[in-house]
């Protein structure tokens, strides 16, 4: 360490920290401390190079900065293709300017942040033709990882790119290992039209997290397909299926949180057109939007109208939470194909679905076709997809199997006690400010089935203890929202309660209410089909019932004060979701269940969606409440 460095560090220490002496001067806020007895030798330098598959990196003619740390972390280090060096500049608003030498078409900027897995940087990207007047192109917070992050913006002509850093979650320094401007694509965008033989099942998205996603589809012949993917329309990366067969689940990894990705499937001569999806936002992201509904899998006209409205740009969520009875009437393989994946194919190609088991799925082998068709998180001790949880931005979601909880599962498939133990641990462990729980059988309902008291008495106390904000259910074919509930009654004035919402209006034939409206019901409706649009924005959750004609039938608002963001927990969350591999086919023989059969008619009649008897001692008629 030079004498100049000792003096400057001591001087800063006196001014900023009022230290008494400088016998052992502290490192500046952005320095890596290397023990003096272990000098860095030439053989120890790794000189890792910058790689950014989602960016056609342009050559920088020259680079300047607002300042540096005075110890060699200069602007030129950001262009030396060595991730072990960096530019570091002090103070909020520190900036780095890349001069490309001439005006070019720019579509983004790639940045590899120094210690990016520890610090979330607050930054603004701006462009300029003359180096004097800059126009903002992008503003965000960096993701918490060490990978190069590409930030795409609308195409524009510019010679200069400025990166302004307004501090980070650790200190007020700007620190960049490598950065490049991204030029216009040199290849045409992928086609949006499908070509070749039509896939028996078009791609759908599963277990989409901050850094990974699964693309699931089926082919007409046995092969080993692959998926091209990348940010925007530049599909520069490839992921290949691990085994040959007819049922395919290809995992995309190395993604960035809260970003739009394009993908195209190439399978056995079939090529699907470009489709896009959005990765889960990182914990700490204040805004989350999703849709939810249950009792929809009929393949009929009402379901079709709800799907058409949900797929409109103004109502499309980042993901769909499905509340059970996804495939009437028995949850068979063909019913999933004809009554869920075909009518919902256009939506599910771009919007991931996180489902829960309904009682109709349990009719066939206690939900085995459901488990074969979905690739869900396996983050419970049993590694079971029957119940699971995931995070999206500032919201923690917990999915339960209410069939298991009320005694409809055999012990070898699902233990009610084990699910309850896991649910309590899961809710207790989440530090996110919002918690949403979803399952099929409603603890509060005045519909045909009434309230499911086993679910209420078993899980209601846990929901209240661990601060659940909203409970979403289906089962009864209507819409009903409770007032904030606590225990077996409406929460007293001035105390916190939980709203329970039945959204059983997704497409199955609506049913009459069993009696008059109870005093605990805020609003109920059995005349309209629809779904809920839920937006969490900072400290406000707004949930609206959107009918199949596009009207807003009901609105729920929940507000709360948000705690401070905990960056250490954010870094731990950004991991690929763990999922089971799913069914593996013999590549030489098509499974019998996948053979083409005449399409099923819609399940639009009351008898098509009738329910099998449930344990009578565990429900209570609505009028007794």
From TrEMBL:
User: Is Signal included in the keywords of this UniProt record?
Assistant: yes
Keyword tags = Signal
Query: Which InterPro entries does the entry mention?
Result: Calcineurin-like_PHP, FA58C, Galactose-bd-like_sf, Metallo-depent_PP-like, PAPs-like, PAPs_C, Purple_acid_Pase-like_N
Annotated spans, Disordered: 62-85, 567-625
Q: Which GO terms describe its molecular function?
A: acid phosphatase activity; metal ion binding
Segments traversing the membrane: none
Q: Which PROSITE patterns match?
A: FA58C_3, PROKAR_LIPOPROTEIN
Record's superkingdom? Bacteria
A Pfam family this protein belongs to? Metallophos
* Biased composition, class Basic and acidic residues, residue ranges: 586-595
This protein is called Serine/threonine protein phosphatase
Starting at the broadest rank, the lineage of the source organism is:
Bacteria, Pseudomonadati, Myxococcota, Myxococcia, Myxococcales
């Amino acid at each position: 360490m030079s004498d100049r460095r000792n003096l400057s560090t001591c001087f800063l220490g006196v001014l900023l920290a009022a230290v008494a002496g400088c016998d052992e001067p502290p490192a500046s806020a952005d320095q890596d401390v290397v023990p003096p007895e272990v000098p860095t030798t030439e053989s120890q330098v790794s000189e890792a190079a910058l790689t950014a598959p989602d960016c056609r990196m342009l050559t920088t003619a020259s680079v300047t900065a607002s300042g540096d740390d005075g110890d060699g972390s200069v602007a030129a280090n950001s262009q030396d293709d060595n991730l072990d060096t960096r530019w570091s500049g002090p103070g909020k608003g520190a900036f780095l300017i890349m001069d490309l030498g001439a005006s070019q078409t720019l579509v983004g900027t790639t940045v590899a942040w120094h210690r990016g897995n520890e610090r979330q940087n607050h930054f603004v990207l701006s462009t300029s033709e003359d180096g004097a007047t800059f126009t903002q192109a992008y503003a965000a917070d960096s993701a918490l990882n060490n990978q190069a992050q590409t930030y795409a913006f609308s195409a524009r002509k510019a010679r200069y790119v400025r990166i302004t850093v307004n501090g980070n979650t650790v200190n007020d320094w700007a620190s960049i290992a490598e950065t490049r401007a991204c030029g216009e694509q040199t290849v045409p965008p992928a086609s949006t039209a499908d070509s070749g033989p039509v896939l028996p099942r078009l791609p759908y998205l599963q277990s989409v997290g901050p850094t990974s996603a699964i693309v699931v589809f089926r082919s007409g012949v046995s092969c080993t397909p692959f998926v091209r993917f990348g940010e925007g329309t530049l599909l520069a990366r490839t992921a290949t299926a691990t085994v040959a067969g007819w049922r395919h689940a290809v995992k995309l990894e190395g993604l960035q949180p809260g970003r739009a990705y394009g993908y195209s499937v190439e399978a056995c001569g079939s090529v699907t057109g470009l489709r896009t999806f959005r990765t889960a936002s990182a914990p700490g992201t204040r805004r989350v939007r999703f849709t939810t509904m249950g009792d929809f899998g009929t393949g009929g006209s009402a379901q079709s109208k709800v799907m058409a409205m949900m797929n409109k740009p103004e109502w499309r969520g980042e993901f769909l939470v499905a509340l059970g009875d996804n495939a009437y009437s028995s949850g068979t393989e063909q019913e999933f194909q004809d009554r869920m994946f075909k009518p919902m194919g256009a939506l599910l190609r771009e919007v991931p679905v996180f489902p829960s088991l309904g009682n109709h799925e349990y009719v066939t082998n206690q939900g085995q076709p459901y488990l074969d068709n979905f690739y869900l998180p396996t983050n419970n001790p049993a590694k079971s997809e029957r119940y699971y949880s995931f995070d999206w931005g500032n919201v923690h979601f917990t999915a339960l199997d209410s069939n298991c909880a009320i005694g409809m599962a055999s012990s070898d498939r699902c233990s009610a006690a084990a699910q309850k133990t896991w649910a309590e641990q899961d809710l207790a462990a989440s530090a996110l400010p919002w918690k949403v729980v979803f399952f099929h059988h409603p603890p509060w309902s005045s519909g045909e089935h009434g309230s499911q008291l086993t679910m209420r008495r078993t899980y209601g106390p846990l929901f209240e203890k661990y601060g659940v904000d909203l409970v979403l259910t289906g089962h009864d074919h209507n819409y009903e929202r409770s007032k904030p509930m606590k225990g077996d009654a409406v929460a007293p004035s001035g105390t916190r309660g939980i709203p329970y919402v039945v959204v059983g209006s997704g497409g199955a034939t609506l049913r009459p209410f069993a009696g008059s409206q109870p005093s605990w019901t805020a609003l109920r409706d059995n005349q309209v089909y629809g779904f809920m649009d839920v937006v969490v924005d900072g400290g406000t959750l707004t949930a609206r019932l959107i009918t199949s004609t596009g009207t807003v039938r009901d609105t729920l608002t929940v507000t709360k004060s948000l705690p401070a963001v905990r960056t250490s927990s954010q870094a731990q969350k950004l991991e690929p979701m763990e999922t089971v591999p799913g069914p593996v086919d013999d590549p030489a023989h098509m499974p019998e269940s996948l053979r083409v059969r005449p399409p099923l008619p819609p399940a639009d009649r009351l008898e098509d969606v009738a329910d099998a008897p449930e344990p009578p001692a565990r429900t209570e008629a609505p009028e007794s409440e």
